[in-house]
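=== Discrete structure encoding ===
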Amino acid sequence: MSKLHESAFIFITCLAQFLSLGALNQTVAPVMVLAGYFHIEDYGTLSWFSASFSMSVGTFILPAGRLGDMYGHKRVYIIGWAWFSVWSLISGFSYTSGVIFFSICRAFQGIGPALLVPNAVALIGRTFPVGTKRNTGFACFGASGPTGAATGAVFAALLADLAWWPWSFWILSIVCLVVMAGAYVIIPNESVVTPEMKGPHRPRFDYWGSITGVSGLVLINFALNQAPLVTWANPYIGTLLGAGCLFMVAFILVELYATQHPLIPIRGLHKDAIFALACIVAGWGSHGIWAYYLYLFLEHLRGHSALLTSAETSPVAVTGVFFAFSTLWLLRRMNVSYVMFIAMTFFMIGSLLLATMPIHQTYWAQTFVSVLIMPGAMNLSYPAATILMSSALPKEKQGIAASLVSTMVNYSISCGLGFAGTIDRYVIEREGKKRGIHGNPAPLSDRSPQTQEIRLVGLRGAYWFSVALGGLGMVVAGISIILSRRRAKSGG
């Protein structure tokens, strides 16, 4: 490819990450507008609009990467844009229905990015050899995350405040069709079957792994995000969670013993890769809470408009690009474990700043600092883990490499919101009882000073959990650093 063609190729693949994060923020930035439109009185129901999207992305990425390895990443990539377009259109028209149908539409919309993201990363991994070009492509892909999130938030807020919120979904649908046409022209055709994949070595789809894995992930995630609404005392929550765990045990057994072409090559994962993925789980679970509750804090507790809140969070686009490309410089000078430790520290500090933030404080104090450093957490951890996984697996398994990291990122966001929602609900109820209030002590329509104080206590409970996740990530990364040092000393 010429330099111009290479640039166009990286641009069209990075749009997968850009628009996926932009789509996630379609219901985060105008969160209070949606609450008013659907007459929602609690944070738990609102979180489903984002959690259902992330759940689908994180769950269906697993088989999507394997489908790309089997049938061609370009082909699955183009199908992903078509799916994304159709369900963005349908999601926009769901304004005629209720909360449940809109959440279902968001879940189906999330299957589009699930098809796009791992195959975009795999296209970069297959097209460029291990080295500077590939790492630069992954850095650009990582930088597209915060820029896409900021852009999606601004446009969703702008349309929600000045026009009508469904327009953000309809415009996204049109954009997806345009990108699909560009991908068909720009991305070169690929040879699906390489010499090492012929005959008995040709990969086959892992049906049992897909069935058990997808079922387990969906059931666990649904239980975690539904629990804040109906409480853990409801019998079906525990039943669904238990069934999901059993499915995941079955999935692991299938991957280890019952298939020659596993969705996740568990046996082949290096210790460094396992530690990196564990850090991704803790860190990005923390990030999902940080982002969602930051918008709630600014819009609901401080009373800022969706557009103003989007402007306040927009610096993530600038610092996100800086941190994404600094990953290349850092990885040439230190082990991945050190980069992950820095990223986990940013996750922890970014959440700590918001957990201790007063309602009536200038934006330029803790809020601004947190917004500045959180992209460091995202854009150091994601490219580092992606580069590590891509280098660890052969060319014909780049779809699997991309799937692992993207699955952990998106699924952790959704599960983190579920845990935080439960903490928020129980803390609010406990605080209400202390003040002699029973039932729902903090309905969203009530903006009295006492209710705002109760709501702030619940929000801080969620943020302290986010701080704990960041701290857990630091511990995991620290253990990885110690083990890598011992391995270096022993010459292993």
Q: What stands out?
A: Residues 449-490 form the longest helix (42 residues). The radius of gyration is 22 Å. DSSP finds 16 helices and no strands in the chain. The chain has two domains: 3-188+266-490, 207-264.
